[in-house]
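Shipment paperwork, digital attachment
Item: protein structure file
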Amino acid sequence: MLLAEAACTTVDNNAAANKIFVETGQLLKGAALATPADAIQLYEQAIQNLDRIVATYPQSTLAVQIISGQSIGEVSRAGIAQALFKAQQSVSPRSLHEVARVGPAALRSGRLLIPHVVRVIAQAWGRRPATRGRGSVGHAGTPPPADGTIPP
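Attachment content:
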């Protein structure tokens, strides 16, 4: 009796994981045809779907393949992450120019597309990215001060 229930649960987990994986494949096809700005959102959703498979259905065959870094057909988490990075790179040069041109107010208001790295640094500091007078961008390689403030 327990063996039959375990087999049924495994089948259900695999079916549910497969459904999410098919959705992920459709997102990736859409991202391949989309503009880089639109593709970023689709790639991020595809990665979230793979993470959801691992978190929600860890007993499924797909979860084991994803967590071990295997490609499933033409889909791999590393491949999606690389495509996401390329899409972000194609969008970010203009964004950095815009930040330098219009200053941090537009950056804080969320009106600008900003590269992921700048977003992460701003969130880690709990403030806007460091800028120096007249909107010029500060040194990107320096770590934030220990007290969380931004130097003048």
